[in-house]
Amino acid sequence: MKYGLDNYLLDPPFSALVAIILLLGLESFGRFSQRFLWEEYYIENRWLRYQNTVFGLLLLSIIIYPIALFGIYLNYVLYSIGTLLIILGLIRFGQKIYLIQFSEFTRILKKTNILEIVILIFLLFYALVALGPVTNADSLHYHIGIAIETLNFGHFPICQEWFHCRLAGSGEVLNALGLAFGSEQFGSLLQFASLVSIYGLVRFYKSPTNDKLGRFFGLVILTSPVLLFLVPSSKPQLYPIGMTSLAFVFILEMEDSRNKKVRDLLFGISISLLMISFTVKFSFILSLLILGGWIFFAHLKNKIITKTIYISATAFLLILFPLFVWKILIYSGSIFEIIFSPLPGVFYGKEKFLGFLRSYSDSSFAWPISLLLPNSLGGISTILGVGILLPIITKKEFILRNQLKYFVIFSFIIIALLFGQSSSRFFLEPFIWLIILTKISIKQEYQLINSNTFLALKMLVFMQAGLVLVSLMVGIYALTPGSFSLSLRERVMSKTANGYHLFSQIKDRLPRDSKVVSSSLATKSLSPYRSVAFDWNSYVSDDESQMRDYLDFMKKENLTHVIFSDGKSNFEGCYGKIVYRGKTHSANRNPFNPNVEYTFFVAELRSELLPDCYDFLSLKK
Fold it and tell me: CB within 8 A of 188, min separation 6: which ones?
């Protein structure tokens, strides 16, 4: 077994190159699948060419996630699939090199619209920032840590003390696929490819290639500031959004299609996309229920009840049934809880953790102001931006003609506000759907393009584009060099990856068979030693009986060392010899949020004395 992200990676730049080849292989796999399913429909609709990676992700997830849950020769499956993707990727890379002629490229560039060049620059900059090493705090907290645990144990991890691990899904298995081949950038490149997919939908759906309106709305998506947070991250959120957005467009297509075979395929693929997005992250249950219910009853209208139920049941058995069975076996809980709770089963700290998840917000402003304005310069990557104002120009007549579509979107928004988080990224889906409808409405009422309101909003979008472009350049400067050489990677990680500088100091200072616990949230991803999570402490620290349960778990795990920041600790009675003291600093990717220095220590833990050595008296004060 290997512990710590560094021990899984190829040296730069090979880690990034492998990620690129894997992504090209996945795109090639999706392209072949689409041509096999509906070649004529694929050729007729340019926007479908941008969905190759999403199709590849759909099929790949259907295959490997159940295998990961039940540990059926998982590592062999990952290496076999990864090898196939690398072969396909190398072939695809060769094809693209052969097709690209530099003289032809420069000729096209000279004839290209200035806005087209700006769009290409945005896409290039997003690709470059996605190629940086993993530095995102959430990624290092559990998205990468779970991938490492999955590879180490040959199955999806069973989480007792690691609360955030219980939130993980099929996206972390794809991160494990990248790590299995020495690449940390595969997850963030999937985010980038999903952005390209969403851009293709918004720009080319119901629009010809050179349509100015489609080009502008494509820019609206690319300039949304929240993408600065989502793209350079191994947090699998953007590609399930790409899946649900594609499902939304497929529902629109079903209304227009007269080809029964295509309509059935649109229905089956849409249901599958929504189900897979739910396996990635529980919050996508809302998309599954609302869009899934819409498309299910829309398909029933065609009086093909048996086929509708058969397609839905097949998708359920392939995608959701293995997940529900696994959750019942591992975490127990009622059927209702297994389906509708992100945290099924009974464990101490559950209610407080759920409360934390539901109340979390990345802005001090109230919704919907928090979608438009950051509460600080450092919060620019937490907003959707001025694009959310564009739907106000939609004509009332268009809304009435499409009232069901708007009802679905606003139902999503209201339910999300009532039961979920108010953070902007959780409203990116309805934002994309509204932008698609707004573009269609303007095409039907083309005089709106010359209205003062639209021209004013257009200027705001261009101003936002300049701000996001500058932010991307800062991100490229801060992150991308880490993919060029080992020394540059260490410098980038130390400055921007919280916990990296700390764990790099204690490498080789402890016996290899040490088992540690640390207050750092990045422990599972960055610790070079086997570790136990400590995030449970925040949710049970005021209850002695609950604390004792988790301390007993620590005792059974035979922990050998603790890594804590200096200061008074309830564990002081459990310490043995102090092994090391050092200075480190907090680290983050945002230049407006300063890093703070602090001291830490590594001490032997006399785990045999737990839980009685813990200072419970302080809990009662």
Answer: 130, 131, 132, 134, 231, 232, 233, 234
**Is the pLDDT score of 617 beyond 90?**
no
| Residue 66 burial (10 A CB sphere; 0-12, 13-18, 19+) | buried
| Cβ atoms 198, 205 nearer than 8 A | no
Q: At what angle do helices 260-280 and 238-256 cross, to 10 degrees?
A: 160
Q: Return the percentage of the chain with pLDDT > 70, whole number.
A: 97
User: For residue 69, what is the DSSP state?
Assistant: H
Separation of alpha carbons 540 and 8, rounded Å: 33
Domain termination residue (choose one: 478, 513, 538):
478
SS3 598: strand
Number of domains the chain contains: 2
| Helix H or strand E encompassing 597 | strand 597-605
Q: What CA–CA distance (Å, rounded) separates 521 from 536?
A: 11
In whole angstroms, what separates CA 264 from the centre of its chain?
A: 29
**Which residues share a beta bridge with 517?**
532, 562
Same domain, 517 and 401: no
Domain around 128 = 5-478
Whether the predicted pLDDT of 524 surpasses 60: yes
Query: How far is residue 465 CA from its own chain's centroid?
Result: 23
Mean pLDDT score of the chain = 92
488 domain residue, yes or no? no
Count the neighbouring beta carbons within 10 Å of the beta carbon of residue 297.
Answer: 10
Between β-strands 561-565 and 597-605, what pairing exists: parallel, antiparallel or unpaired?
Answer: antiparallel
Res. 274: pLDDT tops 80: yes
Contact assessment for residue 247 and residue 299, using Cβ atoms and an 8 Å cutoff: no
pLDDT tens sequence across 303-316: 678 888 999 999 99
Dihedral (Cα; 433, 125, 383, 273), 10-degree rounding? 30
Can you give the pLDDT at residue 107?
A: 55
Residue range 133-153: mean pLDDT, rounded: 94
Rounded mean pLDDT, 539-547: 87
> How distant is the alpha carbon of residue 108 from its chain centre?
35
CB atoms within 10 A of CB 259: 12
DSSP 572: G
Q: Is residue 481 reached through a cis peptide bond, with omega within 30 degrees of 0 on the bond before it? A: no
Report d(CA 311, CA 577) in Å as an integer. 62
